[in-house]
Amino acid sequence: DGGITQSPKYLFRKEGQNVTLSCEQNLNHDAMYWYRQDPGQGLRLIYYSQIVNDFQKGDIAEGYSVSREKKESFPLTVTSAQKNPTAFYLCASSIAVRGGQPQHFGDGTRLSIL
Amino acid sequence: KQEVTQIPAALSVPEGENLVLNCSFTDSAIYNLQWFRQDPGKGLTSLLLIQSSQREQTSGRLNASLDKSSGRSTLYIAASQPGDSATYLCAVRGETSYDKVIFGPGTSLSVIP
Q: Could B43 and A41 be called an inter-chain contact, meaning their C-beta atoms sit closer than 8 Å?
C-alpha cells in the first residue's frame, strides 16, 4: 500500500539536544511538507520541499532544519534553538506544490520534553 | 492575511442526528477548500475537496458546501454514527494553485450511542 510513514510515534528530547523525525513516502510525490500541530490551533507549516535538493521555509521555520536528499525522504531536525518543541508533528506529501493537489498525511510524531 | 476559524470547537450529538460543521475564512480569494478528518493521535484523512468554482461536493453521508463571497463552508453529516467521532478540520488554499494551505483549528465531534 502506498502511503507516508513517520517514525518514531513518540519522541522525547532532553535540554540542548537535537532530535530528528523521519518521514518516508512511497507515493512518488514530488512535494513534501512538515507541519506542527498544537492543541486548539490549526496546523502550521514549518518547511516544504518541491523537489529533491530543494526546500523552502514555512511560517515557523526557526529552530528547525530539513534535508531532501532523496525523493522518498524528508527528515525534520528539531534543534536546541527551538525553545518550545512540545507538539504533534505531521508530515505530508502531494503530487506537486502547484496545481492545488490534495495533501496526504502520515500518522504523526508526538515530541515531548524530558 | 488569511485566517480560518471553526465554530464550535467541540460538539456532542446523539447517534442518528444530522449535523452541520462550520468553517469561516477571511479572504474570499481562494483556490480550493478541503475538509479533513483526524482521529486521536493520527494524521489527517481527506474527506472532500471543493474547487473555488464549485458550490458543493458529496461523498456518501457527507456533503460540503462553499460560499466564497461570504467566506463560509459547511460540512453536513447525515445520520451520524459513533464512528464519525473525530476532529474535523477545514483548510483553504490561497488564490493560486501555488499558494500555501491554511488550516482551521478543527471541531471535535462526539457522537453518543
A: no
**DSSP label at residue A76:** E
User: What phi and psi values does residue B26 have, to the nearest 5 degrees?
Assistant: -85, -30
Which residues of chain A does B41 touch, with a Cβ-Cβ cutoff of 8 Å? Answer: 107-108, 110
3-class DSSP string for chain B: CCCEECCCCEEEEECCCCEEEEEEECCCCCCEEEEEEECCCCCEEEEEEEECCCCEEEECCEEEEEECCCCEEEEEECCCCHHHCEEEEEEEECCCCCCCEEECCCEEEEEEC
> Average pLDDT for residues B101-110, to the nearest whole number?
95
Distance from CA of B49 to the nearest CA of A (A): 8
3-state secondary structure of A12: strand
The CA distance from A23 to A21, in Å, is 7
What CA–CA distance (Å, rounded) separates B97 from A101? 8
Residue A41 near chain B (CB below 8 Å): yes
Q: Is the pLDDT of residue B98 over 70?
A: no
Angstroms from A28 CA to nearest CA on chain B: 18
Quick one: pLDDT at residue A15?
Answer: 83
